[in-house]
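TL;DR need structure tokens for one chain.
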Amino acid sequence: MGLDAFVMCRCWQDGLATPPPIPAEWLRVENSMFEIVDEHDTLENSMAVDRWQYDACPHPNMEAAEERVANWSAYRLFQTALKHVGWQHFPALKANLPEANGGQMPAAAAAVVLDELAYFNAQPQVGEETRLVNEDTAATVMVYVPSYDGVVCQGPGYRSGVTPSGFFLQVDGQPEFRTARFEQIVENGRATLTDGERSVVWPDKPFTGQRFAVASRTLTPAYFEPIVESLRILCEASVATGNPVAWT
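>> reply
TL;DR here they are.
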């Protein structure tokens, strides 16, 4: 799950699309989506419009741009980086980045966002990342997401994750296990985590590896390049067409 977005092209607005399979007056555009007026909104008409829209103009599905912005964890980390630099530098992003799927950003705001993204990219650093790493391979196992209070895994009766104060595991009815470094011992498919003083049974499938530690590193804008590039593409298409960015 995550955040996607698109910008509708101008072919329908400018009369450049092929004729629709139903009378044009039966169609309207709401929130960058074609809708069929109520009395003609049948499954047959809807399917016909969907097929037509896909190749009615040179833009697939009548979209000037369509981008995957990020999964929700990466998106929340991007918001944290913006906050670290200072929301006062990103008023358009603060006002228009969605908190859930849905909604739109007008083209006028998209033009401002392009400047804000350039400012973000010019920063020498945009915060720090706390993560749980496999000490033998340096592979990242968990990343601290402040918006989620560090929780990465949860299931019946337990929650676990990582924060700047350490890796944690909370199992109902037991004291919290929190440590900056631990080892994993696997026997018969079950994992026990130990930091030398305390041990706890890990309630999920074992991690890959034996030794783990919490580490931090400074983040630069390059860390968020995929998100920034997707937003740039969407905003440039919005400015070029005058149509909003539709969050999905």
